[in-house]
Amino acid sequence: MKISLSWLNKVLNMDQIDLEDLAERLTLAGFEVDDMYKINSIDNLPDTILDITPPPNRGDTLSVLGLSREIAALYNIKYNLVLNKQEPIKKNESLIQFKQIDHCLYYSITLINNIIIKNSPNWLQNNLHAIGINPKNNLLDILNYVLYEYGQPIQAFEFNNEHLPMTIDVRKPTSNLDFIDRNLDKIAITRQNLVSWINERPVNISGVTCSEDSIPKTATNSIVLETAIFDPSIICQSATAISMKNDISLRFERGINPNLLHAAYNHTITLIQDLCEGSIAANTFIDKLNSNIKFISLYKLNVEMILGDTIQKLMRLNLIEQILNKLDFKFTKKEYGWLVEVPIHRHNDIEREIDIIEEIGRIYGFNNFPYILPHKQESSLVSMRNQIIKHCKYFFICKGFYELTHYSFQKNISVFKTHHGLEINNPLTIDQKFLRRSILPELLNSLVYNIAQGNGSFNSFEIGRVFSSHNNNFIEEDFIAGIIGGHLIRSSWEEKPRVINWFEAKGILDNFIQFLNLDINWQQSDHSEYFNKDIFHKFRWGIITSGELEIGIFGQIHPQLMEEYDINSTIYLFEMNLETILRLCNKKQYHQHLNQTYSIYPSISRDINMLVPINIPIKEIMDCIHNMNNELLQSIELFDDYHDTVLKEHRQLSFRLFYRSLDRTLNIEEADILIKKLKIYLSKQLNITVKI
Question: Distance between alpha carbon 65 and the CA centroid of its chain, in Å?
């Protein structure tokens, strides 16, 4: 919005104000000054133009009078304007018949006869020329002048008195129609547009633009003046529907100052009578303006809490009450502070106590507040939860995994028929209609996308939020999920590249579980919440449990899914509930694991073979070995599982046991004694024969 300094000077005495300081204060007060430059008027008089961007919620400042009020408050300048705010008198109402007036807070129609269209006087042309508006004729220049002086749009339509009495409608059309605007552009009016009708003829897209054939011309003798305050939301909708924003629609959208409504109308009539020699033939109006008074309690304690120690200076100098007076806020002193009456032109943006406190700080000047650096705080300890999550992340990064991040919102992926997310009632887009129940679908999508782009597959993981529902209660939990494989690996340069196998992929997850010092079991359960038959292989998967708690799942991708996604090599997936891990991985256990003593002495290994019934799980055998409570036993590895076609009810298992001492090097004799004791122990506990 461009404002002429000479125009402002007619309202306020600004002779003592430095222009650079004015620009800085306005900007700090929320009215950003984008540019400031000098021009010469039509009479070759110097002038300065300020190009200002008012805040979006301050429609009351889109005028010279509105901005003058702000400048007066900033500089403590006297601002007492003498305006004719008398309500218009109705005259010859029978000549104007209102039929349907919709979405109008105030609507007035005035018939003026005997006008003379000619050039405007120099003072009027100078004011408009200064702000970049080309003068046209006395009538249109008057309307533009009032628009920028008061911020009140007023429209004038050509009228033929032979069509009296006139009928007036302000409503949306019942069907689409074509409309030629004042710039000769063809506009398709839809049912979203609010339209003004005179004698059933559309003359104006209300609050936006008038029709070309309704514009007063040089030979015009009678005009109809439309003065209105429309519903801002309806004008915004209407202007958006036809992709047209202008100075008129902007003011209606941001809100008209009702206090200046009658003053703007009366000044317009006076100028038309003086410059156009017109006379009022008829006038009537409808007034639905809200006259409710809004009160807000302003507490001293809250002002002090927000503005800090500055409040003491403001109180001592009575500046708070002065600022409220400058902004037209009436108030009553109370024990707690003040009961403030919000002026009607600020009802749109002053809704709470904090808004008034902000106004006090804004007018006082935020740059006048003391510069106080915050006290240096000692770095706070990172919570155990965040430490564990961070170490989980670093574990996989150190293993060569890429960390991925996806939105929690996702579309329903058709490949996973039984894996539907939680549907959102008001999604941002169609592709973000569901909250995910699992991280794996999006990880697979990213993998397939990278393969399609020629980047190949890679190990990846993600830590993110997963959503579920139980008994109409929505649950949010953090999960960690990942993809292993899909690419060739090799242990040395001499070895040929090969795909990763089940044991190598599972070994990574075993290391992760060992890293967290968790005591877990592996089992299969089709009823597990982690198992999805659309994603995992029919047989090659396992649920990770600890006691009665399910932690997560690890398994091979379903062959049909590999075919759907055109994946050529085997991929393994895992997903674990971080919330469950955090409950199991308590502080004491976690720190003990990180600080576990490491032996500097070499280990010694022994292999044992045993023939066991096929119904005895391998884990049961390994648990039995551990139950001997041998402190020297470091680890157990299964390296052979042989099934004989003759002994179908048995299988041959081979284990490798590693022993290590913290204070010495074990000798061969000690290792042999340990194995013999183990042989006797297993024979008693499981009734199996061990061969050394």
Answer: 36
